[in-house]
Design a protein that fits this description.
577 residues, alpha+beta, eight-stranded mixed beta sheet, seven-stranded antiparallel beta sheet, 21 helices, 20 strands, 35% helix, binds 6-diazenyl-5-OXO-L-norleucine
């Protein structure tokens, strides 16, 4: 991720853990975790976590709390929380059954495979960065409604209204969000009058910490969703507002696109590592498949004996990452459009073959590994703004949810009269057919743009169980790094016995096949380890922070949840409901 994006990411990830009934001290204990026997909500916004916790207190279950937290994040965490974007939810009920909700955005019906190429055949990245051609058809409202219809206990209205009230009455900006909004309004939003009207300060000055942000149109929109249901967004006046705004400004999304949008309940990807059962997101996210493939490969080696931070273990992790990410590029896309060998990719026999091909002392060439799909080069970029929340209720029902506008504040376009930001998720498609290159651009067929198709994601909301009982809830933002971040947090806990705090704090490594570079978080490993990896043939670089993995580990014996915020991006705060 670029320095610019990293700075933007760092702005307002005010980590909050809202435990229930743990008395006055709703803060992390000496282990750096918040402990609760009555449920736990962890999100990137203290106010949103409080909303989720208050729903648990009213007798709502984890899904009710998830829906309420998500809508609240659309108000209090505008960089990534959203109703104009999409995401994925993994749900595991206390009886052990698990499912996933896919509410990923879809390409508008008028979109084409080459819509982001200029006349010289180069990708015009400004079209997917901001503006009216960048958004996919939003999925969040249908997704949350589907989750609630299937599993919610409290009335829909009760879980949506708190967000509507937050938007209408306003909330106090902390310094991070004030700074971030001031910058966005002055820069990327300034070409969009409705965005400046929604998020600018009325007197035109810059937002300061402590100012109250009132989002009147968003409040009206959320109120309509609360009282009239998701249809008002997809076939009612909100759909009319989106379509009219698109029509006025050369965008593609129509009323037909919105009316046709469906969220999907999909069977999870399942894996097993060291006796733990993993339930994670299937395509159109690549996350679950790639993570299970990596863990399957790693299970062929005795990592514990080698040590978590030994060059040998890190080498094997890089080799597993390289192989899973080349398969991601080769095969994965929207299951409604492409056939994928998912059973094979997540099988232990396939992992055994891949593991046997790893040279224990030499790096594999990524180009060589993917020579069937690699073509000449151009330049690649990556964006990084998304948000993860993890929830457990007192009964042990669990939700892991990752949702996004793609880049921070998405397309920067606020729908006139409806007050919410639209995503810029179309950039997650393969934009140049046939161009898969050393810089990390992918042009393989599975993820090319087609009307109505969902773009491939890396979001990896994940729940882990052991002996049929809930063990862990995790996930992260971070673009293509997400899959590795989540895999490492899971590996730390399930393979190395780390508690939630240790698993989240442990330094992270990323390799995504191409570019053929392993990046470590700053000062993650000793210089001698880096030298050894370089001697094996790896290109090793340092990076800033990777991910923001809000994680809960659940002790099923004592029914106690241990929550760890990711301190990379946040001042840990806890709020009592
Ligand atoms: O779906 C995806 O994989 C990306 N659009 C997610 C973007 C992201 O994580 C940015 N976050 N920090």
């Amino acid at each position: 991720m670029s320095m610019h994006l990293r700075a933007r990411c760092a702005f307002a990830v005010v980590m909050t853990i809202a435990p229930l009934s743990i008395g006055a001290q709703a803060t992390a204990d000496s282990t750096g975790m918040v402990v609760s026997r009555n449920g736990l909500v962890i999100s990137s916004s203290s106010i949103a976590s409080d909303v989720g916790a208050s729903i648990l207190r009213k007798g709502g279950n984890a899904v009710d709390a998830a829906v309420a937290t998500a809508f609240a994040l659309a108000v209090t965490y505008p960089g990534a929380g959203n109703i104009g974007g999409g995401g994925f939810m993994v749900i595991r009920l206390k009886n052990g059954t698990a499912t996933t909700i896919d509410y990923r955005e879809r390409a508008p019906l008028a979109s084409t495979r080459t819509m982001y190429l200029d006349s010289t055949g180069h990708i015009n990245r400004s079209l997917t960065a901001t503006g009216y051609l960048a958004p996919g058809v939003p999925g969040t409202v249908r997704g949350l409604a589907l989750a609630h219809r299937r599993f919610g206990k409290l009335p829909w209205r009760d879980v949506v209204l708190p967000a509507a009230q937050l938007a209408s009455r306003g909330f106090a900006l902390d310094s991070g969000l004030a700074r971030s909004l001031a910058r966005e309004v002055a820069q990327a939003m300034k070409s969009y009058p409705a965005s400046v009207a929604a998020y600018g300060k009325r007197d035109g000055s810059a937002w300061q910490a402590g100012d109250t942000l009132v989002l009147a149109d968003l409040g009206r929109t959320l109120n309509a969703i609360a009282t009239r249901g998701a249809d008002v967004f997809y076939t009612g006046w909100i759909a009319d507002s989106i379509a009219a705004d698109m029509h006025r400004n050369g965008g593609l999304i129509t009323k037909k696109d919105l009316a046709a949008y469906r969220a999907r309940e999909r069977a999870p990807i399942r894996g097993r590592y060291n006796g733990y059962d993993i339930v994670t997101m299937p395509p159109p996210s690549s996350g679950g498949v790639a993570m299970v493939e990596m863990l399957n490969i790693l299970s062929h080696f005795d990592l514990e004996k080698q040590g978590r931070w030994s060059p040998e273990t890190l080498h094997l992790m890089i080799e597993a990452m390289r192989r899973a990410y080349v398969d991601r590029a080769r095969y994965l896309g929207d299951p409604d459009f492409v056939k994928m060998p998912l059973t094979r990719l997540t099988s232990s026999s396939y992992a055994a073959t891949l593991a046997s091909q790893i040279d224990r002392t030499h790096a594999t060439s990524s180009i060589e590994l993917g020579k069937d799909i690699v073509t000449p080069s151009s330049v690649a970029t990556e964006s990084d703004e998304t948000t993860q929340f993890s929830i457990v209720d007192k009964d042990g029902n669990a939700v892991s949810n990752t949702f996004t506008l793609e880049g921070g504040y998405g397309s920067h376009v606020v729908v006139r009269g409806a007050g919410f930001l639209l995503n810029n998720e179309m950039g997650d498609f393969n934009k140049k057919p046939g161009d898969t290159n050393a810089q990390g651009d992918i042009g393989t067929p599975a993820n090319l743009i087609d009307p109505g198709k969902r773009m491939l994601s890396s979001m990896t909301p994940t729940i882990v169980a052991r002996n049929g009982r809930l063990f862990m809830v995790t996930g992260s933002p971070g673009g293509r790094t997400i899959i590795n971040t989540v895999m490492e947090v899971v590996l730390n806990a399930t393979g190395f016995g780390m508690n939630a705090r240790e698993a989240v704090d442990a330094p992270r490594l990323h390799h995504q096949w191409l570019p053929d570079v392993a990046t470590f978080e700053r000062d993650a490993v000793a210089d001698s380890t880096v030298s050894r990896l370089r001697a094996m043939g790896h290109t090793v670089e340092q990076r800033g922070r990777q991910g923001d993995a809000h994680t809960i580990i659940f002790d099923a014996k004592t029914k106690t949840a241990y929550g760890a915020n990711d301190r990379r991006s946040s001042d840990s705060k806890a709020a009592r409901p």
